[in-house]
Write a structure and sequence with these properties.
single chain, 74 residues, alpha+beta, two-stranded parallel sheet, 27% helix, elongated
Length: 74
C-alpha cells in the first residue's frame, strides 16, 4: 500500500509539517510506502496575468511548477 502526505504550509519545519510526519508514522511502521510532499520546499510565483499561457499552452514563469511531479498524481 502507498500513502501520500501533502503539507501546504509555507513554513518549513512548522507545526503543519510536524503533525503530518506524526500522522504518517503509523503507515511507515506497518511497511507502507510513504511519500511526503512539502510545498515549503517549492518556489511558486503568482500569476502576473500576462495571458501568454493562452497562446503558448504553458506558463512563461519559470518556477517549481515546471517540475515533473506526476509521480505523486498516479
Amino acid at each position: 500500500m502507498e500513502v501520500l502526505g501533502i503539507s501546504g504550509s509555507p513554513r518549513s519545519g512548522g507545526n503543519t509539517e510536524l503533525v503530518l510526519k506524526h500522522a504518517l508514522k503509523p503507515f511507515s511502521e506497518k511497511g507502507w510506502v510513504v511519500t511526503e510532499f512539502f510545498l515549503s520546499n517549492r518556489s511558486v510565483a503568482p500569476c502576473d496575468g500576462c495571458d501568454e499561457c493562452r497562446s503558448l499552452g504553458k506558463c512563461i514563469i519559470r518556477d517549481d511548477m515546471d517540475r515533473n511531479i506526476k509521480w505523486c498524481l498516479r
